[in-house]
Specification:
The chain is mainly α and 73 residues long. It has a domain at 24-48. It is 36% helix and 0% strand. It contains two helices and no strands. The protein is rod-shaped and about 110 Å long.
Length: 73
């Protein structure tokens, strides 16, 4: 008689981590928390509160400057 090979687990070997993977749950929780934190902080406007953007050009004022107007030549 021929010897029968031992029964194998279903699926491809080595494609997925085992069910006893202790690092999977903390990593998934960390990634989801960072993803949600990005949206929460953006909604709260946190970066612009700590580092306000400066205006590139000064705002126009209603008072004319004291420099003389250029005369046409």
């Amino acid at each position: 008689m021929t010897s029968q090979p031992p029964p194998r687990a279903p699926g491809y070997r080595g494609t997925l981590p085992p069910r006893t993977d202790r690092l999977a749950v903390p990593w998934v929780i960390t990634v989801v928390a960072v993803f949600l934190l990005v949206f929460v902080l953006a909604f709260a406007g946190v970066p612009s509160k700590f580092f306000p953007t400066s205006s590139v050009t000064p705002g126009a004022s209603g008072v004319p400057s004291g420099s003389p107007a250029a005369s046409p030549s």
